[in-house]
């Protein structure tokens, strides 16, 4: 039976676009079907001042081409002065904090949360959201769980600071989300679908390796339920992370799953499978609009239960990126962009 | 300070030698420093009759060349007749059971344990040991733990059947080992050293990906303590598994760590680090001799705390295999083989 849904202004609240040739390849693949996205600042060097942020934004706008698309820029967290924050505020959606070394290009990140509280305080007072890659340096399956006490601490200590728990992967994180009103979260496509089994249970699959790593079945189930029920403080954030194929299919593969071009269709398939298609609009756009107070470019994306063959790779100048579900058939596809 | 230990007749109680060109490369790398090894039968087709077993043994003897080396042949578990077992018994050390699909070339394995009990019963009566790849098809971190009840069941139901829990990876398995006198276990080098962190905590490392997958820090600690204390029913079994480099550094990498050429030196380094060098002889040979009632070829291997650069690969005709610790320096090395 033909089924379809029209989504208004889908938003990707956590996106890596990289720079240079990769940016030119990746940006249109998101901009075609999303109204806007929160752009991660973990370049080398990091996007940690207004000049870099505005220059990067311009390169994104150039790369996007003819698509209507809002890049919501995030600044890389460091200790900022009040003046720096004041002039940057209107140009950004928030500040992204990386524990030093937790993921790709995060070496310049924060070493101790409590040492940077003056910046949190200013952000709270100025209404600047904090976005956090919430992992410790502990055992890989425990890193997010161990970080939760930091969320708990920050949410209590700065009750007016809006804190986004980025790309949550555990049932414990869903519980923490419910504990404080000023916590919100993003969740990726892959963490709604896969577990560690898919990464390392059969053959080792580098294209499903990401940070935080996919966890246990009961974790996936808790995340999926929260998404399907359109939890009011949970937003879609793909964490789509293009790496050149030679950094993935090699010895010592980089972390990140490239989902941008297939995310909307795959989410429609997932929500439909669980008879929750009506909740996808809230998950993929409305929650983010409310929580961040943003009004994205109007874009109507119609998704239909018509099969779509995912290509083996997306190829640009000097770039070759393998998407999630490469060479597989999705049951849903984007049928119209208006 | 110069330190050394001379090991008498080291035994590798769980070894993959493969076949063809790979066998020719891998066999001498074990035979040089080990007196003997239990040879896994998961070829394609499996080594599941006496003819195949004797032919494979001859190919191993040929591949070993001038080294003194005892290949202890294992038969691939299936339902055997009493007559088949009777004629095969003197040519083998035991029968290896794979749950169907649990690891490399195990598609012909057992689908339900209770359906094959007549063969267990005959093995028990004839004094033929059972060796088991003990994993369910559950979530990758739970597979061994979930299988433990099968060990418990078999050990109770067949109290005179000697059952080896192959390549144990969890603290729970160490506990199970202590529960029944007719259970014994092998443990690999890598599971004494690494956790899932080393496989997937930083970059994804295909050369440390194996089945069972490396588990949590507390699991490694329990295994290490049992080995260092020379637990009387724990034996060294490398599970060294050579895969051609193109099956490892690729998309969808095969499971197995190649440790044979470095195992003895690395174990000496590990036991020395914990001031337990005196227990290495029991772990690497004496326990196996007692538990299996074998008298291996006499071989004296002297290991010294002199540095050794592990090569990037071992290369044979059409074969290129990357060992554990490739390009790293070990603190100990084999200084004399007598």
From TrEMBL, chains A, B:
Gene Ontology molecular function terms on file: dihydroorotase activity; zinc ion binding
Boundaries of every Amidohydrolase-related domain copy: 87-294
Annotated transmembrane regions: none
Any Pfam family matching the protein: Amidohydro_2
Pathway listed: Pyrimidine metabolism; UMP biosynthesis via de novo pathway; (S)-dihydroorotate from bicarbonate: step 3/3
N6-carboxylysine, modified sites: 96
InterPro entries reported for this sequence: Amidohydro-rel, DHOdimr, Dihydroorotase_CS, Metal_Hydrolase
Residues annotated as binding substrate: 16-18, 42, 133, 243, 255
Positions bound to Zn(2+) 1: 14, 16, 96, 239
Binding site for Zn(2+) 2: 96, 133, 167
Catalytic activity: (S)-dihydroorotate + H2O = N-carbamoyl-L-aspartate + H(+)
Active site (UniProt): 239
Keywords assigned by UniProt, alphabetized: Hydrolase, Metal-binding, Pyrimidine biosynthesis, Zinc
GO cellular component: cytosol
Keyword Zinc: yes
Cofactor binding note of this UniProt entry: Binds 2 Zn(2+) ions per subunit.
GO biological process, one term: 'de novo' UMP biosynthetic process
Function recorded in the entry: Catalyzes the reversible cyclization of carbamoyl aspartate to dihydroorotate.
HAMAP family in the cross-refs: PyrC_classII
Oligomeric and partner information: Homodimer.
Family: Belongs to the metallo-dependent hydrolases superfamily. DHOase family. Class II DHOase subfamily.
Name of protein: Dihydroorotase
Organism annotation: Rubritalea profundi
């Amino acid at each position: 039976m033909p089924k379809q849904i029209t989504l208004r202004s889908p938003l990707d609240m956590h996106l890596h676009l990289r720079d240079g040739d990769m940016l030119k390849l990746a940006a249109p693949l998101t901009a075609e079907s999303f109204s806007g996205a929160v752009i991660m600042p973990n370049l080398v060097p990091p996007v940690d001042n207004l000049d870099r942020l505005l220059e990067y934004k311009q390169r994104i706008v150039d790369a996007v081409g003819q698509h209507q698309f809002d890049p919501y820029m995030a600044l890389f967290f460091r200790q900022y002065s009040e003046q720096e924050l004041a002039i940057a505020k209107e140009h950004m959606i928030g500040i992204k904090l990386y524990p030093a070394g937790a993921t790709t290009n995060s070496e310049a990140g924060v070493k101790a949360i409590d040492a940077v509280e003056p910046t949190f305080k200013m952000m709270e007072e100025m209404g600047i959201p904090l976005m956090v890659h919430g992992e410790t340096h502990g055992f890989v399956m425990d890193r997010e769980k161990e970080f939760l006490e930091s969320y708990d601490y920050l949410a209590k200590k700065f009750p007016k600071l809006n804190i986004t728990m980025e790309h949550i992967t555990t049932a414990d994180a869903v519980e923490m989300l419910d504990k404080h009103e000023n916590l919100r979260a993003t969740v990726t496509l892959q963490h709604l679908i896969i577990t560690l089994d898919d990464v390392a249970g059969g053959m080792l699959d580098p294209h499903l390796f990401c940070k935080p790593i996919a966890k246990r079945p009961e974790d996936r189930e808790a995340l999926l339920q929260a998404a399907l029920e359109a939890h009011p403080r949970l937003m879609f954030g793909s964490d789509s992370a293009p790496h050149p194929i030679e950094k993935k299919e090699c010895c010592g593969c980089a972390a990140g799953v490239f989902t941008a071009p297939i995310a909307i269709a795959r989410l429609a398939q997932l929500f439909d499978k669980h008879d929750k298609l009506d909740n996808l609009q809230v998950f993929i756009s409305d929650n983010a609009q409310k929580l961040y107070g943003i009004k994205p470019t109007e874009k109507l994306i119609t998704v239909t239960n018509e099969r779509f063959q995912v290509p083996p790779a997306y190829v640009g100048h000097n770039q070759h990126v393998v998407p999630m579900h490469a060479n597989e058939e999705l049951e849903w596809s984007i049928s119209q962009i208006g």
